[in-house]
Amino acid sequence: LELMEAANTLSVNRVEMNDTKIGVITSGIPYQYVKEALPEASVLKLGMVNPLPRRLIEDFAAKVEKLYIIEELDPVIEEQVKSWGIKATGKEIFTVQGEYSANMIRRAVLGEKLEIRTPAKAPVRPPILCPGCPHRSVYYVVKKLGLHVAGDIGCYTLGAVAPLSAVDTTICMGASISSLHGMEKAKGKEYIKNWVAAIGDSTFLHTGVNSLMNMVYNKATGTVLILDNSTTGMTGHQDHAATGKTLQGDPAYAIDIPALCRAIGVKNVTEVNAFDLTVLEKALKEEVERDEVSVIITKTPCVLLSKEKKPLYTALEDKCRKCGMCMKPGCPAMTRRENGTIRIDDTMCTGCGLCKDLCKFDAIELVKAGDE
């Protein structure tokens, strides 16, 4: 323990002493808020919070007259420090709920507000699926069919935002399948005829398999969409147990997701290309009508995985009827000109072809193949 504490003290903690008698113990992002809100305070920034460097904390506390412990959520550091007999102020004045801010900290400690200049009126930039994302076409079809979605934790959670607005619930990782199961048990199988669960391949292997297993075991009904983009997209494209590589990039056995679903007991397992709108729509219509568990796997890799040159589409202004069908999936590469016709940004287009498939007037055409 002494060796760990010494290493902790030397390598990852930082003490910043000022002339003021106010001292703050903090860690992580609250440190940034503290530096902005209390620039005059002495600060002990903890790089590791377990085990805590007791001697360093005791020495720091002895040098200040008033000690604050600023940490978000539960008072983990605070309780440990106070158990050593060190007087400190923490959750008596700070909330245990939600994120902190510089203004909240300064108001709690000094009873003052920061003088903040009015920010520039920058354009609103809501989070959105990438151009060419295979999840976009899936959610487009889901919304077209009027289906509700029990969502999950991943980049595909962005299907909840406009204009797709296709995800109705997001609770925690793996909860999409169990939520669908719970709805069916609470409301009956007819209720979930217009519901599906949506979960990514990585999340499915992480904590969705058990929920699917539970559905089969308990003779549930319901359709599960596994959005297989061959990676862990949300956190930086890490490999997982079905990609055939370890996190270090070494070859590994790749779990066969369709075979895994069948081994669990799912009789109805369908694999489709996420961009094949006709086949996907047909599969969804068929599977949601079943009185047993079914799985649809949309097997299309994340567009960011490939470094090859992508196809490029353009919108023909003279053919565009301004109907807006191509805009419905919300691809950020597409905008309207002042006259209402569609323009495709060639720096953003990844050549997925979804807009061309939706255009009924041949106003979108391929101008460059992927290998050119």
Question: What does the model show?
Answer:
The chain is of the alpha/beta class and 372 residues long. It has three domains: 2-110, Rossmann fold, CATH 3.40.50.920; 134-299, Rossmann fold; 312-368, 2-Layer Sandwich (Alpha-Beta Plaits), CATH 3.30.70.20. 30% of the residues lie in helices and 17% in strands. The protein has eleven helices and 13 strands. The strands form four sheets. The protein has a five-stranded parallel beta sheet, with helices on both faces. Helix 10 (277-288) links the parallel strand 8 (268-272) and strand 9. It starts with a helix and ends with a strand.
What is this entry, summarized?
The chain has 372 residues and is an alpha/beta fold.
List keywords for this structure.
Rossmann fold; 30% helix; 372 residues; five-stranded parallel sheet; Alpha-Beta Plaits
What topology does this entry show?
Layout: H1 2-11, E1 14-16, E2 22-27, H2 30-37, E3 42-46, H3 54-62, E4 66-70, H4 76-83, H5 102-110, H6 134-144, E5 148-150, H7 175-187, E6 195-200, H8 201-217, E7 222-228, H9 257-264, E8 268-272, H10 277-288, E9 293-299, E10 312-315, E11 334-336, E12 342-344, H11 354-358, E13 364-368
Parallel strand pairs: 2-3, 2-4, 5-6, 6-7, 7-9, 8-9
Antiparallel strand pairs: 1-3, 10-13, 11-12
